[in-house]
Amino acid sequence: MTRNSKGSLVRPFSLPDSASRPVVTPLSPSVVYASDTPDALDDQYEGRVHGYTYSREGHPNADVVSQRLDAMEGGQGGVLTGSGMSAVSAVLLGLLKSGDHVIGGNQLYGRSLRMMKEDLPRLGIATSLADPCDIAAVAAAIRPETRLVLIEVVSNPTLRVADLDGIAALCRDKGILLAVDNTFTTPKAIRPFDHGADIVIHSVTKLLSGHSDVMLGYVVARDPEITARLRVFSVTAGLTPSPFDCWLAERGMLTFDLRFDRAQATAAALADHLAGLAGVKRVIYPLRPDHPDHARAQALLNERGCNMVSFELEGGRAAANAFTRGAEGLCFAPTLGDIGTTLSHPASSSHRALTEAERAALGLSEGFFRVSVGLEEPEALKSIFSEAVAAALAAS
Ligand code: PLP
User: Residue 269 is inside which H or E element, if any?
Assistant: First the structure.
């Protein structure tokens, strides 16, 4: 409690004076902000001055992060949300209405797929899924009432590369919004606005924050009016994030460039290493010449690829168990973009709800793994994989 001329008050009037300023963005956990007068509040609400009122509507830590992301994606006034899925939800629930139709890539992130299959139809919004690598399939799915197409540039976990330029041209021609979830690829590999996307989405939880200690999302539209609608919906629906999560995300993002370059270069080297190991049936990495979308990956991803590598072991579940047991020091955990390398096994996690036949159609056998490459020393990582694959081979 602070003492002042009015005696003992609950709240101090101001922060201590300082001629110097902090180097690190201060954490501002205040939920509410006080104004001088109702006129001052009018000025704020009517946009004549900038200020904060209530943290669900905005706070300094969110603005610091969204400005950084705006600069990376070439957007303006982007909206931060409490998770990647709340950014996806803001787009699908904040822009569409009953009677509309939306097309999703058929290999979207699992929860995005679930929203397309379960939640939107419940609200009277029709949905179709189409292969974003096949422009004819996307064109065939378009209806007169199609309002939006949602794709990811590189699919999870099969790492196929979408025909982004083709889909953008199609959407432009038909007056349909194109939303791109750029989580996997990041603005270091591709900026979807440069390829004609209307909306860019991120799970900032992943590579951008990078330390598996914060959940955050981001969405921005090319058209400021659409961004404003996304902001209003996010505030109304309570999708906006806490100051602490934004503060942590900013700290992680300061090293994003360095982390991405290191992880991507190691991923490319690891992909080649895996391809030479006995016991590995196939390796999927977009910049390898044997990738089915190699030419498109080179054109779209600025020769940067990504930090994700998928591969298939010979042998079934026994080989998979031996592999994760043998991969000493690597986390077998359903995430990506962490500073440490993580292993994901779609058959027992992200794709476990699919039938075996559905998994087989996607090429997801019991031996299939997705690797999110982290910052380990590349030679040490290669040797861990050599030993784990050898253990898998012995068990198969
Ligand atoms: N989009 C993609 C491509 C993802 O991989 C994920 C999560 O893995 C999400 C969205 C959802 O993000 P979050 O977990 O931050 O809600």
Answer: helix 256-275
